[in-house]
Design a protein that fits this description.
Number of domains: 2
Shape: elongated
CATH topology of the largest domain: Immunoglobulin-like
Strand order of the largest sheet: 2-9-8-4-6-5
Number of helices: 2
Low-confidence stretches: none
Structural class: alpha+beta
Mean pLDDT: 82
Helix content: 25-40%
CATH superfamily of the largest domain: Immunoglobulins
Oligomer: single chain
Order of helices and strands: HEEEEHEEEEE
């Protein structure tokens, strides 16, 4: 074999070796990329599944009824609110409160809310936005955690110093699922007359 032929054979071997290395490297990189993609998809699947499970648990709470008796009351008299609700098996009810939005109350409330025993609440994110201002009528009342069907919360509210008018009040039930707190809210109507 002549010198030129020998060099050609060496170059050909190098080229073959280089091409083989290149193919191995490409396949190795594609395997890593494939494994990364699979790992990412699995993480996304389990994260989505956990989120959906949490939302499904959160959606299982239901109010059966909320009644004010009487729902038309003379100013200064009391009425009794009874809230019935169901929780999911893993959800524990732990407390309640009553409030109303400023926009859902008679205009005279803004001048008299302190005399009524209410506390004005301004959200930190929008303290000047009247739409989100609310009055706390009954602050958070805790009770022994419980779970199940047909649970009941009963509370007596006095209308002492309440201006005459129609009120849309809210009851908020505090629940816990796996250590996370949830606030379940619904409203009811009460009319105060002279």
């Amino acid at each position: 074999m002549c010198k030129i032929g020998k060099n050609y054979a060496v170059r050909k071997k190098r080229k073959i070796f280089t091409e083989t290395q290149s193919q191995n490297l490409k396949s190795l990189l594609s395997k890593k990329a494939f494994l990364k993609t699979v790992a990412f998809c699995l993480m996304a699947f389990f994260a989505t599944r956990a989120l959906l499970a949490e939302q499904e648990q959160a959606a299982t709470f239901t109010f059966i009824s909320v009644n004010a008796a009487p729902d038309i009351v003379k100013s200064g008299e009391d009425f009794v609110v009874t809230a019935k609700f169901n929780t999911a098996p893993e959800e524990e009810a732990a407390g309640y409160s009553f409030y109303t939005y400023a926009a859902a109350s008679p205009n005279a409330v803004s001048a008299n809310f302190k005399d009524m025993g209410w506390v004005l609440y301004k959200p930190k994110s929008q303290p000047d936005n009247l739409k989100w201002r609310s009055y706390i009528i009954v602050p958070n009342k805790g009770f022994k955690r419980r779970t199940g069907q047909d649970l009941t919360v009963t509370h007596t509210i006095s209308t002492k110093n309440w201006p005459v008018g129609d009120y849309r009040l809210n009851v908020k039930i505090v629940t816990f699922i796996n250590g996370k707190d949830f606030y379940r809210t619904t409203n009811f109507l009460v009319s105060v007359v002279e």
